[in-house]
Each structure stands twice: as C-alpha cells, then as structure tokens.
Amino acid sequence: MTSALRDLWNLDDEVAFLNHGSFGATPKSVLAAQARLRDQLEQEPVRFFERYLPGALAAAREAVAAWVGGDPAGLAFVPNASTGVATVLANLRLEPGDELLVTNHAYGACRNAFALTAERAGAVLVTAEIPFPGTTEDTIVAAVLAAVTSRTKLALIDHVTSPTGLVFPLERLLPEFAARTCWSTRLTHRACWQSTSTGSPRSARPTTPRTGTSGRAHRRALPSCGFVPTGATAFIRSSSRMV
Ligand SMILES: Cc1ncc(COP(=O)(O)O)c(C=O)c1O
Q: For residues 196 and 215, what is the distance between their CA atoms, to the nearest angstrom?
C-alpha cells in the first residue's frame, strides 16, 4: 500500500495488513464520522433517536440504494451478513419437503443457518457441488442450476466465496433463476447485501483463482439487484412464500 493510501487508516506501519475480509480496519474518515454521530447522540439522546435518526436512516438508504442499483424501499441495514441471513430465514414459511439451496462454497455460518432452518421445518438442504480447483463460470452456473427444482424456496449464492475466494457470476445466475418455470411469475429476485470488508474482491485476495465479474459489473448488469462488491451474499427467493 502506498503511504498516501496507508495514511487513510490507523494501521500499524510495520504490518502489511491483508485481512480486510474477516476484520477489516476502518478508515479514519469513517471513524471521525462515527465520532461526530456519537457526540450528537450524547448531546440530546431523545432528539437524536426520535427526530434525527429516522430521516438520517432514510437518506442513507437512498444513498446506498442508488450506489448498489437497488430499491430503497427494499433495502434494510443490518449489523452484518449473518444477521441478514438469519432475518431472511426467520421470515420464511417452509413446508416439509421444501428445498433450501446452498453451494459447497457457502460461508459456514450462513450454511449452518440454512441447515438448521431446513431441519426445523422438515425441509431439505440441497448442496450444489461446484468443483474446485478448475472452476469456471460455466461449471458454477451448471452446478447451481442443476440443483434447482420445483421445491426450491430459497437459494443462498455467495457473491465472493469465503473458503475459495471465487467471484460467482450472479449476473448470469439471477436471470436463469428468473427464467425457471417453477419460479416464473412468483419470483422476484432481490439481493440482500452486506459488505464485510472494504476494497474490491479482486484486490482483496489476489492470489486466489477467480471467476465471474466485479460487483460494479453486477450492478450494471442487474439494475433490479444491488450488491456491495465484497463479501456479499445473494438470496433468491420465491416471493409468495415470504411473510
Ligand atoms: C460470503 C460470506 N458470507 C457471509 C459472511 C459473514 O459475514 P459477517 O461476519 O459480517 O456476518 C462472510 C464473512 O466473511 C462471507 O465471506
């Protein structure tokens, strides 16, 4: 990292910090903005929560939705990706025999949440096995779509895979989901997104084999979906089954 870039963080000069995926450091400008908000809150907590916060959150939703190419009304802030996954699962109505789809590259905690939800409902956790190494966009698309059935209610497709560092081609998968007969008119594809790090996925793990395109390309290709370009997880769901 150049010294100009390094100056944007409080990172120790002696350390080459590469792990922005798990515990990304926060830029100084963001820390300063957080401090300003905390000061504002402490000056008059009731005014902050009741008069200031709702409007500020709405403005932030508009700004983030514009950036990711999403719909502000369909965007909610969550503390982290795991909470977003748990929230979606908690609001899903499943019947015995329904299927939840993950891949063998899914982030462990989110996969476990899918497994528990399936177990409790008598549903089936289906895992699309995507070969690795030698993974290509075509093998990903083929493996995922082969695992979709008329019982598939929700798919968890990690954008940037945690165990293998691949970028999955969501811009190809989402239209394919939408085109499946079983999902057809009932499907609204939306992405729940949550950034877990800063910087682009390609620069985050440069030595890992990659496929697919960057988050920016996804945003261009899929105006109805929004993605933060790192650590993002997409959910594709059948809208009629959500509460
Ligand atoms: C693909 C993916 N999904 C979900 C998560 C969980 O993120 P969080 O710890 O912010 O809940 C991670 C974390 O690295 C991830 O890489």
A: 13
133: which 2 tokens?
């190494």
Q: From the alpha carbon of 106, which atom of ligand 1 is closest?
A: 1
Residue 125's beta-bridge partner residues? 100
**Ligand 1 binding residues, C-beta < 6 A:** 21-22, 80-82, 107, 109-110, 158, 160, 162, 196, 231, 233
Q: Which atom of ligand 1 is nearest to the CA of 162?
A: 16
Q: What DSSP string describes 89-123?
A: HHTB---TT-EEEEETTS-HHHHHHHHHHHHHHT-
Q: How far apart are CA 52 and CA 18, in angstroms?
A: 37
Tokens linked to 58: 């709405």
The model's pLDDT over 68-120, given as tens digits with 9 standing for 90+, comes to 888 899 888 998 889 999 999 999 999 999 999 999 999 999 999 999 999 99
Tell how strand 152-158 and strand 233-238 pair up. antiparallel
- Of 162, 146, 138, the closest CA to residue 99 belongs to 146
Q: What pLDDT, on a 0 to 100 scale, did the predictor assign at position 22?
A: 76
Cα of 225 vs its chain's centroid, Å: 11
CA of 61 to the centre of ligand 1 (A): 21
Q: Calculate how far, in angstroms, residue 36's C-alpha sits from the geometric centre of ligand 1.
A: 28
Name the residue with the closest Cα to ligand 1, atom 7: 81
In order of start, what are the domains of the chain with their CATH numbers?
A: 3-68 (no CATH), 78-241 (3.40.640.10)
Cα 3 from Cα 18, distance rounded (Å): 15
